[in-house]
């Protein structure tokens, strides 16, 4: 084998895979992106790179940023290779690679966020984007209101010039821009939240109001917060994924694997301009809500349909879950009978077509997307993805048997052991409370539904609470696979009525 090439600006011309054809030394920043994980680099950074390959958007380069100590490790890896990333596309029929170069720097991780604030205050920065996960927006999971009681936010309100959150840093930067007469920037959420732009507006404006009402009014009037829908499966890296770079002759300690699918639907609300992302496949629409509803309910809620039971059964990946006959059947039935009725068609796609697409994507054996990753942070993902569907089904008087079983599987998973008695390690910011409640629910199922910050009034007598209290004992007394089979029998019997 030829000697492997360490990824850097100096070695780009030695690569045999697609790589930046533009002069990266001529790029200037226009975007700060907070939360530089695999998804961002496989998705938003890729769209911008494609524009740069077409000799466009060279004044929109990305500066990476983070606000958590663990971000420092990614910063170190990326700076060591000039912020270049190898993207490896794992199509079931083919594996290909491409090196992208749309990110040009990564700011230091500081407790005060001083460098981040200073960079965002620069007039050249016209977009501040973020991928900070669904649970990172400080909203109450039931009411969806801004959580003023959180210690992080109370700190930022009391110390607006030394914030510890990304949102506090944004407010501080906007304060500097306003004072200097530089004008606003666009705040762009790229997280899987229904109305993510509206939620980001709520968080930023509400936090600003805690320390400076006049600034909050200016932000609310002048800053734009477009809603967006993002989609591309980009799993976490393990040794197997990291080794793939060597197959293409590259040493890359921060590579990203991803599926052969991307989608980005965005509201065209950018107060100081934007790259022409529509030229490389993004969709601009006034009806992002319909696209994101389809994606969040069928894909993201669909992940929760199978990941929790997959963890209990010790099934390692989502593709392996889809290869399990009873689990795949459960996924398809819940999708078609309880999720699809709450989803409207969008231009070019019906719910039925999208379900088929998701079944194919989830079944891709090359995508090593672990059930553990997908099941992470259920205390944010179930209220965000699953329960809104359940509420719509209840309001329409339709079945919630499958969704009740989904929630029962989550309660069983949070007990902390698999059916083979192996331990499920902590996998949620609220893991200790969830485990304690799951243990109480083994004897008294209603204990789980009394997690008021998650279920709210769903603990009241209704078809959901009744079904949940039937299914959880079945799981404990008979096991997951018998419960899946019993559900299939229930569906067949209901269809014959």
TrEMBL record:
Cited InterPro entries: 6-PGluconate_DH-like_C_sf, 6PGD_dom2, Mannitol_DH, Mannitol_DH/Oxidoreductase, Mannitol_DH_C, Mannitol_DH_N, NAD(P)-bd_dom_sf
Domain Mannitol dehydrogenase C-terminal stretches: 287-466
EC number: 1.1.1.67
Annotated transmembrane regions: none
GO molecular function: mannitol 2-dehydrogenase activity
Keywords: Oxidoreductase
Span of domain Mannitol dehydrogenase N-terminal: 30-279
Name the UniProt record assigns to this protein: Mannitol 2-dehydrogenase
Gene: mtlK_1
